[in-house]
Amino acid sequence: GAVVSQHPSRVICKSGTSVKIECRSLDFQATTMFWYRQFPKQSLMLMATSNEGSKATYEQGVEKDKFLINHASLTLSTLTVTSAHPEDSSFYICSASPGGQPTTDTQYFGPGTRLTVL
Amino acid sequence: LAKTTQPISMDSYEGQEVNITCSHNNIATNDYITWYQQFPSQGPRFIIQGYKTKVTNEVASLFIPADRKSSTLSLPRVSLSDTAVYYCLVVLGGFKTIFGAGTRLFVKA
């Protein structure tokens, strides 16, 4: 199946700093990628839809100025958590589907990034 | 977006067949039904996908009735390593999807 990678796998930062997380589709192109956040013992919560060449679409309640998304190419989307605080500590996961929209191809998920803000 | 409902948790023993049913009453014509498995601190892993009737692969079977308002994931002869959270998603590839709570499967020796 298709492979989606994330970097870093885990990061620890001080409160007030910014952290960038990369999501790459390794063997396919993805015009659309999705970012999720998952707290312990909870399900994945969709944060935003990342669109190549255009602005991301954020879900209700997600601050676009705090979670900056850049979809620079058909294989790379980045999520930057700006001025991180301890409540931003979470597991961040991205996903992508091969092909355009719509497609019968399934979504493939990255391995996730564990962010801990001290 | 179609909403899914699954049992919160299930227990089983090694070697047994496990069936997890998901309801998705407002599934759209173009939606596919996809099941994922997630272990702690890992991203969801694709298990199986189907549109209607029955689909089988090397790890699971997926049963979908004619009205497509529900689906059942069948895991044959589970092992301890199958302990995980299983998510049923109704998706149209390339479009956003919303995760339900998932089903926590605990396999006991």
Describe the structure.
The complex is a heterodimer of chains A (118) and B (109). Chain A is mainly beta and 118 residues long. Chain A has strands spanning 4-7, 10-13, 19-25, 32-38, 45-51, 57-58, 67-73, 76-81, 90-96, 108-109, 113-117. Chain A contains no helices and 11 strands. The mean pLDDT of chain A is 90. The mean pLDDT of chain B is 92. The relative contact order of chain B is 0.34. Chain B contains no helices and 9 strands. Chain A binds chain B through residues 1, 4, 6, 31-32, 34, 36, 43-46, 49, 91, 93, 95, 97, 99-112, 114, and chain B through 30, 32, 34, 36, 41-46, 49, 87, 89, 91-102.
Rg estimate of chain B, integer Å: 13 Å
- Classify the beta-strand content of chain B into a percent band: over 45%
Oligomer: heterodimer
Q: Enumerate how many helices of chain A there are, as a single number.
A: 0
Structure at a glance:
The complex is a heterodimer of chains A (118) and B (109). Chain A has 118 residues and is mainly beta.
Q: Any descriptors?
A:
heterodimer, A: 118 residues, mainly beta, seven-stranded mixed sheet, 11 strands, B: 109 residues, five-stranded mixed sheet, four-stranded antiparallel sheet, 9 strands, 0% helix
Reconstruct the topology from this structure:
The complex is a heterodimer of chains A (118) and B (109).
Chain A: E1 4-7, E2 10-13, E3 19-25, E4 32-38, E5 45-51, E6 57-58, E7 67-73, E8 76-81, E9 90-96, E10 108-109, E11 113-117
Parallel strand pairs in A: 2-11
Antiparallel strand pairs in A: 1-3, 3-8, 4-5, 4-9, 5-6, 7-8, 9-10, 9-11
Chain B: E1 9-13, E2 18-23, E3 32-38, E4 45-50, E5 53-56, E6 61-64, E7 70-75, E8 84-91, E9 103-108
Parallel strand pairs in B: 1-9
Antiparallel strand pairs in B: 2-7, 3-4, 3-8, 5-6, 6-7, 8-9
